[in-house]
Design brief:
Elements (H helix, E strand, L loop, with lengths): L19 H25 L5 H28 L3 H22 L2 H12 L8 H16 L6 H31 L1 E4 L10 H13 L5 E4 L2 H10 L3 H12 L15 H17 L5 H6 L7 H34 L6 H16 L3 H4 L5 H16 L2 E4 L11 E6 L5 E10 L9 E6 L2 E3 L2 E3 L2 E8 L12 H18 L21 H7 L5 H4 L14 H9 L5 H20 L1 H20 L15 H4 L9 H19 L4 H14 L5 H9 L6 H6 L5
Parallel strand pairs: 5-9
Antiparallel strand pairs: 1-2, 3-4, 4-5, 6-9, 7-8
Helix pairs in contact: 1-2, 1-3, 3-6, 4-5, 6-10, 8-9, 12-13, 12-20, 16-17, 17-23, 20-21, 24-25
This protein binds zinc ion.
Zinc ion (ZN) binds next to helix 16.
């Protein structure tokens, strides 16, 4: 076999050369070598310090991260059965590897000895935090447990990583399995031309005539929002909200029910092994929030502030649906449709009217120009880079002094075999090496509407917001100045503060001065007319309270199922969700809605007992943006301070300290309420 491209990655991964057969041998080899390195380091030295232990371990760890990252990424965006198989095989090995490190008593003692040594105070703040975080990590891996419990903890982690992966696979497979084919366009009446073009393209890709709709988000969204045929909306809704469940058109083929029960039981068991009462407490241990109770209190306060507004919004929607659309009893598949019609009537604004002003090239260039004005960085495209798909583009970021700061891949469009949603992931982390600084690289992934035919991709305003959001995560990963991987970029940041830069970036999509940088008609090049902007701005609070309650419903559900295993046992997962809905929701979905079966954030991703982070961090992001509102949107001093604190310091200090360094005080909730139209 030719050389394995996953070993010794120096520079960018060579995606086109990576095949499934490379994965296991590379991961096996690096794991074995890393274990060897760790043993020798522990054996060779009698007293430990940063240079003789942590630095070489960080380098070894970095080699594994660089090999695994492209595999994890390709498994998400160009999934195949072969890749999936080797990915899952490695997940088990990696889980065991990481638990072994976390439970290594000798290594734990070595770290503790550095913590207790006289040299500790001479380390810089980031190094100190890195060591403290590591010590906490050992405790949360069960380092102090007796051997039999250590072993059980390790088994749990392995089973959990397999279950979480299986959860995600079920969602992807159920999403890919459902399509609907149409011979005549009349059946799709109401869909805007861009959506019809997309459906025609989806048919072509399947070598069919006519039109095909799918459950990939842009397609689902277009039907549920625009299709006049109520039965069609109903069937698409039913397919979408029963994905990966026991019912619906998938016929239970990708049912996540058992996975979910097992995942919760294992999380509870591992929390108890560590001495926590429940998994929510374990999760909160590493977050800004003090306890699950304080999270629930925060969410119910927000819910109280939103409910009156939300009821009024729903009232308005219902009467519009009945009087304006003749829908006397609104069903769940009417909500998006009626809302869009109401929005059009109330603000004279349709989403379609905006799209021509958001062609992909202008939007991305505008995003980059905005970052130049705010943070003094320059972003340029680089061609000829090896990637995993022809749609992918690649860029580099340099700072005012001309230094290369980071690089990133853009993979923006929805397609088959690509996981839904949008996210930023780390490809390469910032790290000091003997040769110099290794600069960070990010993957920025969205599922936006793809280009159709010769037209450029035209984004919805929501898709623009999503792109800005993910880019905010990317900025924090790439602009970090911290050189120790455990606390650089987004690493080491309390999870409930991680949505600060991302949600901060969303705000710019509502500002005329920022939109003027990029909202240009794709055919005429004209800037967005004032009148159109005013109509867009006036929709900012449209159904904001209902959306707020929806997020609170998800967050409360998440924290409850992780904080109250007894209720889950008695009422089932569905029962807990029903109860949460009764308490906070103004719109109760039908009892066959299986939203939770596709809730990857908490069952497969990093948001378990942490979904509230979006709202928690929105307090920070809204309050941070308020400083720009107060001192000038493009005030370069404020931009520089945001860069030098939130974006560059990463996890090297506590999130609240970093925040205070920017804002000069603790955050208040006022700006969040104001931005959501909920201020008293
Ligand atoms: Zn985010």
């Amino acid at each position: 076999m030719r050389e394995n491209p996953l070993l010794n990655i120096d520079g960018l991964p060579e995606f086109s050369k990576i095949i499934p057969a490379h994965v296991e041998p590379a991961i096996d080899q690096i794991i074995a070598e890393n274990q060897q390195i760790m043993q020798s380091l522990l054996a060779e030295n009698t007293s430990y310090d940063w240079e003789n232990l942590i630095e070489p371990l960080d380098l070894a760890q970095d080699r594994l991260q660089k090999a695994w990252s492209p595999v994890r990424h390709m498994n998400s965006v160009v999934n195949t059965p072969e890749l999936r198989e080797v990915y899952n095989a490695c997940l088990a090995k990696l889980s065991a590897y990481y638990t072994d490190i976390g439970q290594n008593t000798e290594l734990y003692r070595a770290y503790q000895s550095i913590r207790d040594s006289e040299t500790f105070p001479q380390l810089d703040q980031a190094q100190q935090k890195s060591i403290d975080d590591a010590l906490r990590g050992f405790r949360l891996s069960g380092v102090s447990l007796p051997e039999d419990k250590k072993l059980r903890f390790k088994e749990i982690q392995q089973e959990l990583s397999a279950l979480q992966s299986s959860f995600e696979e079920n969602v992807l497979d159920a999403t890919n399995a459902w399509t609907k084919h149409f011979d005549s366009v009349e059946a799709l009446s109401g869909l805007p031309e861009s959506a019809l073009d997309m459906a025609m393209q989806a048919a072509e890709q399947r070598e069919l005539d006519g039109w095909v709709i799918t459950l990939e988000f842009p397609s689902y969204y277009s039907v549920i929002t625009y299709a006049d045929d109520r039965e069609l909306r109903q069937s698409v809704y039913e397919a979408y909200v029963t994905r990966a469940s026991d019912i619906g058109p998938g016929d239970g083929q990708w049912d996540n029910s058992e996975n979910m029960i097992r995942i919760l039981a294992l999380r509870q068991e591992s929390a108890e092994l560590l001495g926590f009462v429940n998994y929510a407490e374990e999760s909160i241990e590493t977050k800004m929030a003090e306890s699950p109770e304080s999270v629930m209190q925060f969410l119910s306060d927000l819910s109280d502030k939103s409910r009156t507004f939300a009821r009024m919004e729903l009232e308005q929607l219902s009467s519009f649906a009945s009087e304006g659309l003749g829908i006397s009893s609104m069903e769940p598949w009417d909500i998006a449709y009626a809302s869009e019609k109401l929005r059009q009537e109330k603000y004279q604004l349709s989403g379609e009217e905006l799209k021509p002003y958001f062609p992909v090239d202008k939007v991305t260039q505008g995003l980059f120009d905005l970052c130049t004005r705010l943070f003094g960085i320059k972003i340029t495209e680089v061609s000829g880079i090896d990637t995993w798909h022809p749609d992918v583009r690649f860029y580099e970021i340099s700072d005012q002094a001309g230094n290369l700061r980071g690089r990133f891949y853009f993979d923006l469009y929805a397609r088959q075999h690509k996981r839904g949603g949008a996210w930023m992931d780390e490809c390469i982390n910032r790290l000091r090496r003997a040769e110099g600084i290794q600069t960070p690289v990010a993957y920025l992934t969205c599922n936006s509407t793809p280009p159709v035919g010769d037209k450029p991709a035209l984004f919805t305003h929501d898709e623009v917001i999503t792109l800005f959001h993910e880019f905010g995560h990317g900025l924090q990963h790439m602009l970090t100045q911290v050189e120790y991987p455990d606390v650089s970029g987004i690493s080491g940041i309390e999870w409930d503060a991680v949505e600060l830069p991302s949600q901060f970036m969303e705000n710019w999509c509502w500002e005329k001065e920022a939109l003027d940088l990029f909202a240009r008609h794709y055919e005429t090049g004209e800037a967005m007319p004032d009148d159109l902007y005013k109509r867009l701005e006036s929709t900012r609070h449209f159904q904001a309270a209902m959306q707020m309650l929806r997020q609170i419903e998800f967050a409360l559900f998440d924290i409850r199922i992780h904080a109250d295993p007894q209720s889950v046992g008695e009422q089932g997962i569905q029962g807990v969700l029903d109860q949460v809905r009764e308490e906070v929701a103004v719109l109760i979905p039908p009892d066959w809605n299986r939203f939770q079966h596709g809730f990857s954030h908490i069952f497969a991703g990093g948001y378990a007992a942490g979904y509230y982070s979006y709202k928690w961090a929105e307090v920070l992001s809204a309050d941070a943006f308020a400083r720009f509102e107060e001192e000038g949107l493009f005030n370069p001093m404020v931009g520089t301070e945001f860069l030098q604190t939130v974006l560059e310091m990463g996890g090297s200090q506590k999130a609240m300290d970093v925040y205070k360094a920017f804002r000069g005080r603790e955050p208040t909730i006022d700006a969040l309420l104001r931005h959501n139209g909920l201020a008293a």
